[in-house]
User: Fold this.
Amino acid sequence: MKSALMLAGALAVFAGSACAGGTYESYDAFYAAQPGTVFGDPVKFDAGVVYSGADGQGVQTELRTTLGAKAVRVALADDRITVNGKTYRYASAATLPGEHPADFPPQSADVFLAARTNAHRAVLCVQGDSNGSGEADRHKQIYLLINPLAPTDHATFLHLPSLFSSCRAVLATKDGESILPMNSYMFDDAQESRVGLLVSYYTFEDRRFAPTLDEIRLRFTRPESPFEFSIEGKK
Assistant:
C-alpha cells in the first residue's frame, strides 16, 4: 500500500498540471507524460529474423539485443515469448478479472526493455496488434515480464488490460513496484454515448492485482471519438 500512496501523490501532481497542457491525440503521448514512466521507444535490435516455425505453427520472430551488459535473445511466436531459452506462454500470464490473454502475430510485435535501476527492477514488455474487426484498433495485446533474465520461478509474467493500452503505460513507484492502468469507458448521463475514459491504476502484489485507489478521467473532445482527448481530472 506504500507504493499505492506514492503513486497517488505523483498522479495528483500530474493530473493537476496536465489539465492546462491542452489536448492529446495519442495515448502514447499521454502515458509518456506521466511520472515514473518505465519504457521509452521500442528496442532497436542488433539482429532480427522472421521465419516459419519448424513445428509448423506459423511465423516466428527472433531478435537479439542487450540488457545492461548481458546478451538477450527474444523469440516470439503467436502464443508465447522465449527469453534466453525460457518460455512464457501468453495463456499462463496473470491477468485482471474480465481480461483475457490472447495470441497475436509476432510480425506486429514491439519489444521494450528497461534495465534495473534504483527506481525499478529489470523489465521486458511486448505488445502486438489484436486480431479482429470493428474496434480492434483500440486494443493491444500487452505482456509484461518482470526480472526477465532471472530463473522462471523468480520472474513475474503479467497480461495488461488491452483497451487503449501500451507498454509505455507501465509506471514504477519510488520503491520499485510496477503500476499499470486498466481503462474503461465513461458514458453520458443517458448511458448512451461514450464520452471519456477512466484510467484506474493497479499494482501486482502477493501474486494478485490490487487497486492503487487512484484514477484519472480523460474526456473525449467529441463523444464516441476517443482519439482526441484532454485530462478532466483525478477521481
About this structure: The mean pLDDT is 84. Residues 112 and 139 are 18 Å apart (CA to CA).
